[in-house]
Amino acid sequence: MSAPSTTRYEAEGLRGFALALLQASGLAPGIAVDVADVLVEGDLLGHDTHGLQLLAGYLDQLAGGQMTRDGAPDVVTERASVATWDGRRLPGPHLVRRAVAWASARARAHGAATVAIRRCHHIACLAAYLEQPARDGLMVLIASSDPATASVAPFGGTTAVYTPNPIAVGIPTSSLPVLIDISASITTNGMTNRLHAAKARGANPWWLDSDGRPTDDPSVLHASPPGTLMPLGGPDAGHKGYGLALTIEALTAGLAAHGRADPPEGWGATVWVQVYDPEAFGGGAGFLRQSDWLVDACHGSAPADPSRPVRLPGERGLGRKQAQLRDGVMLREGIMEGLLPWGERLGVSPPPAR
Questions:
Q1: What is the Cα gyration radius of the chain?
Q2: Is domain 186-230 in CATH 1.20.1290.10, yes or no?
Q3: Is the C or the N end of the chain the one with fewer CB within 10 Å?
């Protein structure tokens, strides 16, 4: 598997490079800003399979017409605090940011608000949308499925039916927000593809071969017949990941009324965004009293390994973000190399190394 490069780049330089590539590919300026911001945020937080690693694929989709360059989503239905949008295959980072803003404003008025998005393009790193709403005192939940792809089998099965189906939650506290970003499978398609390309094995058996046997070999997904990603919970408790995946399918495809029962349209997503304002429930101060207690109790739990104290989800990512904003972003080998041909083609110079 490729290791982190020793080359670092200023975050603003990477953001400017991504923005220039996207605009040179015809993406509307305001939409391009959202995409560039979200991709670089993914790398800052350490989710490097869902950061700038995705940009070359996005540019290819723009060039081929599979990603819409401009315009707004179509409103399918809208009530005071609930909406369903047809994303028209606009970039996912733009649509999700727009949905979080829509739901945040209405949560302030009504306590909670929800947006379901059908026909959205890929939405990148879910954790990249969480920090600011949580720092603003709002709890935000985001879930996603890709109706055109299947790589996870239902528990006990051997044929893929659904995707890793991630769900992310941003929880306010009096200090760092808790940022949860998990999926219904043990690993992701992005990590599987990276390991397969590097001819590397997983740290543990994260996959099932076509006969349903656990393996640490990611190449089983590319075999004939193909294997699958192991559901969260593994061989003994994979029914829990299976149940989570079905829940996310209902929240995304079910509420948007568009998903696997429809003809596939290519790489994309069906998305669910929900925002809560604690002030409308037991009050913001009461919410923070509870979340702060949990943070303190988790930090105070005696660690199994004294050299590795207990952390809260997102804590390492936010620490990595601050370090990389200070010291430069370290991209994995191959990410910048994959973007250089696009820069030459589109007349966009890469950022200087730090």
A1: 20
A2: no
A3: C
Backbone angles phi and psi of 154, in degrees to 5: -60, 150
Residue type, 86: D
Q: What is the DSSP letter of 152?
A: B
Over the stretch 80-125, which tens digit does the pLDDT of each residue have?
Answer: 999 999 999 999 999 999 999 999 999 999 999 999 999 999 999 9
| Spatial distance between the Cα atoms of 348 and 334, rounded to a whole number of angstroms | 18
Identify which of 255, 48, 252 has the alpha carbon closest to the alpha carbon of residue 146.
Answer: 252
Q: 7-71+314-354 is classed in which CATH architecture?
A: Orthogonal Bundle (1.10)
Task: Enter the CATH code of domain 75-183+237-286.
Answer: 3.30.1370.60
Q: Characterize the bridge pairing of strands 74-78 and 82-86.
A: antiparallel
What token pair was written down for 318? Answer: 């936010």
Torsion of Cα atoms, 126 then 99 then 272 then 90, to 10°? -80
Three-class secondary structure of residue 342 per DSSP = helix
**pLDDT tens digits, residue range 170-223?**
999 999 999 999 999 999 998 999 899 999 999 999 999 999 999 999 999 999
Which pLDDT band, with edges at 50, 70 and 90, does 6 fall under?
low
**Alpha-carbon span 38 to 14, nearest angstrom:** 12
If one counts every other C-beta atom within 10 angstroms of the C-beta of residue 12, the result is 12
Q: Enter the pTM of the model.
A: 0.95
